[in-house]
Amino acid sequence: xxxxxxxxxxxxxxxxxxxxxxxxxxxxxxxxxxxxxxxxxxxxxxxxxxxxxxxxxxxxxxxxxxxxxxxxxxxxxxxxxxxxxxxxxxxxxxxxxxxxxxxxxxxxxxxxxxxxxxxxxxxxxxxxxxxxxxxxxxxxxxxxxxxxxxxxxxxxxxxxxxxxxxxxxxxxxxxxxxxxxxxxxxxxxxxxxxxxxxxxxxxxxxxxxxxxxxxxxxxxxxxxxxxxxxxxxxxxxxxxxxxxxxxxxxxxxxxxxxxxxxxxxxxxxxxxxxxxxxxxxxxxxxxxxxxxxxxxxxxxxxxxxxxxxxxxxxxxxxxxxxxxxxxxxxxxxxxxxxxxxxxxxxxxxxxxxxxxxxxxxxxxxxxxxxxxxxxxxxxxxxxxxxxxxxxxxxxxxxxxxx
Length: 402
Ligand SMILES: *[C@@H]1O[C@H](CO)[C@@H](O)[C@H](O)[C@H]1NC(C)=O
Ligand SMILES: *[C@@H]1O[C@H](CO)[C@@H](O)[C@H](O)[C@H]1NC(C)=O
Ligand SMILES: *[C@@H]1O[C@H](CO)[C@@H](O)[C@H](O)[C@H]1NC(C)=O
Description:
Shape: globular
Bound molecules: 2-acetamido-2-deoxy-beta-D-glucopyranose
GO biological process, one term: signal transduction
Number of helices: 6
Radius of gyration: 24 Å
Strand content: 25-35%
Low-confidence stretches: 16-27, 107-112
Organism: Chrysochloris asiatica
CATH topology of the largest domain: Tachylectin-2, Chain A
Number of domains: 2
Domain Olfactomedin-like: 140-397
Signal peptide: 1-26
Keywords: Secreted, Signal
């Protein structure tokens, strides 16, 4: 473990000498992620050590988080970055002194686990994690996306932003219409036909929520509307549509809500999704246009089941959806299109970009306000420049690993 700490501080020194001087920016998020992971390993190893060491590691870890945030925007703030790195250099020096001290303590303390044991524990832990994920994602679906078969514009409005949907699980035919990116009024239509026809005859039911929503990331799951509570950075409200009351609420952890999920969707800080496996949340990780973080939520208790740092960037993204446990992210280089899926994230590692054909959406003038999959009818519900759109999909069976 002392070795691990030594290695990490040596790594930081190397890191510093690579990036400074000149003050070149590490725009490579994989590097940032790697640094952060090193600290996590350290933390695990040292958890059993003395209080003082733990406090020290905590500080080190906070610092690495700060650095990773700064790296994300360092092009714009080179001087801030530079002074942070200078201060890191001081800390690294101190770290090396601490390492020597820890080495001295080694014989007398509980801190005597061997590197091998830590490695073995880590492997065991990884195997358990994988098992946990497999159990979590064990619904009876086995499709992956192959293409967009057709587009149908079901309604046109003047509102650039908004969201519309059916319940992703229960077989209610009702259609819900949430106009704009901040409001508390939900329109409920008895079915798709009523939604498509002029909404004045018969008038839709108006539901006034107790809280307003923020963005366009809402979903309906088993009679509950889940939405980002406007005015909070990361609170998700679970609203009972039948009782017309808040059922429950949660705060999405992991720094959720600090920045936009997708660069080209200017009001959504937390996106939610429903697929065959259940309820999910997507937010952007640290740094400007960081990587997307995917979180699986237990819809009953609102507990976090698992969270993944994905390889998909928020930069140039406009929307994403989950289909059978795989995240598909839609990008458009300037927001105008072409709209194309160029990044997928599969927690089980079966589907990756090389399995995808050229996944283009039909060309549209503007980026989508939302694109959500409905696992019940297996199609996408989208909102583009005031148009409410259904995309029908082409899927095939997932390939099996091994
Ligand atoms: C990280 O940044 C916060 C806010 O800028 C600051 O209060 C804190 O001291 C920093 N932590 C470390 C270890 O530098
Ligand atoms: C997944 O579910 C099937 C039946 O639904 C079961 O046979 C299988 O053991 C489960 N796999 C895991 C890893 O839980
Ligand atoms: C909220 O939505 C209602 C109905 O869709 C609309 O009449 C109202 O102007 C909206 N309010 C705001 C603040 O956008």
